[in-house]
Predict the 3D structure of the following.
Amino acid sequence: MRDSDKPFVLYRRGPMNFTIVPRGVKGWAQSAFWMLMLVPLTIGFAVYAEAHEGTPRVYIALGLYLAATAIWSVAMIWWMKARAEVVDVKAMLAIKQQAERDGRRR
């Protein structure tokens, strides 16, 4: 897949500092699909928690819900990173600063 065809853009500022942005209709549709995948899990937890309100089972369900949400989040980020054009912001800023320095010297 060419970079221009990828549905996401990943702006990398450091090893763990990045931003993923959807690109075009395809990117937004895939982002919406990932968000919709979380809806059944959330509704299921809400129904279960309401049915077992005031019991220790709610805390167990909450722990499982939070663990599932964490796994879902990591999977979504990993999936989007694999389908994203990577833009290294530090490198771009370094090139821009070098060009500005060269422009001032002239």
In short: The CA atoms of residues 9 and 85 lie 5 Å apart. The chain is about 65% helix and 15% strand. The longest strand covers residues 8-12. The chain has a mean pLDDT of 90.
